[in-house]
Specification:
Length: about 400
């Protein structure tokens, strides 16, 4: 617990102040500086792409035993970036700070680094430790989005950013520097056969189906993260209510992650993942179509539960297909397409708004995308549930399980 707790606390801060802040800041900054939301959204997309590009480099340093240093530097970089962002005047400055500075902070403080440190402590059975960290991560939105909305309302967006910089500097940096512990001898060994036949594995139909589903699901979630609050503000909801509903998406992820183990005892991971992705589709369209608090709030909880459980179920599905010894390589191969999806979706949503004056088209498109993401999993669900032996499935399985 003394390993997981500090990582969990700083996970809340990192996701709360980097990932979920953009949706809160989009409208007040756009209004004050007269910027188009679609052009602003480019910074969010750039942040995701740059962070994804840095992932491989960061991973090598984590494996070399520098995880605590990376976390500390990342939190300090976030504090500096938020301070600089409070003084921004032009779009190029905004792109540089959010799209590069905060991208570096995200790459250094998000799940991959925390997971790597926890995994080196709990090599025999890391799943519970990783699940605990994601449970903390589920609190990021309900904790920070209402807080950030309140700071903007009472201080203005510039002073709110200074306050957020102080949270990183005075809380996250000391925790990473002095509380996070690292194994005395961090192992950097890799199983020699783990990367074997990677080109053929990347063309495995099951890998392509799981990855396609993940891309469509992540795109919808990224769209909601950035554009849900501006959408509700445009419909006349007050900022506090919109932020509270957005926070329910994060809160809904907690029961999804908490009961993932129990669900796996009754259903296979492919069935659960398919259901989670379809739940996101339903929730997205309900959040757009409903106009009262109760159905929108319930849809936000459903969306959060589906999204919160999906990463764990996706990991379980990947391990069921390729085995744990190849999971790291295969999971890493999904990084770029997922980053591209997460980066493109907010930009597409912002462009739709700039062209039509409404976010409704974006909600329809990304709800349909999530629905398609559940459909592409159906062959895997059918094959495992009914124990069918498709010719291509058997041939490819022989290449993986030898």
């Amino acid at each position: 617990m003394m390993v997981v707790l500090p990582l969990g606390i700083t996970t809340i801060i990192s996701f709360g102040t980097i990932q979920y802040l953009f949706g809160v800041m989009l409208t007040p900054i756009a209004r004050d500086l007269h910027w188009a939301s679609g052009r602003m959204s480019i910074a969010y997309s750039l942040c995701l792409l740059v962070a994804g590009a840095l992932g491989m480099v960061v991973g090598r340093h984590v494996d070399a035993g520098r995880g605590r240093l990376l976390l500390t530097v990342g939190s300090a970089l976030a504090a500096i970036s938020f301070w600089l962002l409070s003084m921004v005047q032009t779009l190029p400055q905004f792109y540089a700070i959010w799209g590069i500075g905060l991208a570096g902070a995200a790459a250094l403080t998000y799940y991959p680094v925390s997971f790597a440190i926890a995994g080196q402590w709990f090599k025999a059975a890391p799943a519970q430790a990783l699940l605990a960290i994601t449970l903390f991560g589920g609190l990021a939105a309900p904790v920070f989005q209402p807080l950030e909305q309140s700071l903007v309302a009472h201080l203005g967006w510039r002073h709110a950013l200074v306050a957020i910089a102080l949270i990183q500097l005075l809380i996250a940096v000391p925790i990473h520097a002095f509380w996070v512990r690292y194994p005395a001898r961090a192992s950097i060994a890799r199983e020699a056969n783990a990367p074997a036949r990677m080109p053929s594995l990347l063309l495995d139909v099951r890998f392509l189906l799981i990855t396609t589903s993940a891309v469509l699901s992540v795109a919808g979630s990224a769209f909601l993260t950035v554009h849900f609050i501006p959408f509700e503000l445009g419909r006349g909801w007050n900022a506090g209510t919109a932020a509270m509903i957005a926070g329910l998406c994060g809160f809904g992820s907690i029961p999804g992650r908490a009961f993932g183990g129990a669900l796996l005892r009754r259903f296979d991971s492919f069935s659960i993942l398919c259901a989670c992705t379809f739940a996101q589709a339903v929730a997205t369209i309900v959040m757009a179509a409903a106009h009262t608090l109760v159905p929108v709030g319930c849809a936000a909880l459903l969306s959060g539960a589906g999204y919160g459980l999906s990463p764990a179920m996706r990991a379980a599905a990947m391990m069921a297909v390729f085995g744990p010894q190849r999971f790291g390589s295969m999971n890493g191969a999904q990084g770029l397409p997922l980053a591209l999806a997460a980066a493109a979706a907010p930009a597409i949503g912002g462009a739709i708004f700039d062209r039509t004056g409404s976010y409704m088209g974006g909600f329809i498109i990304f709800s349909a995308a999530a629905a398609l993401g559940s459909v592409v999993l159906l062959p895997l669900v059918a094959a495992r549930s009914a124990r069918l032996s498709f010719g291509w499935f058997v041939r490819l399985k022989k290449d993986v399980v030898a």
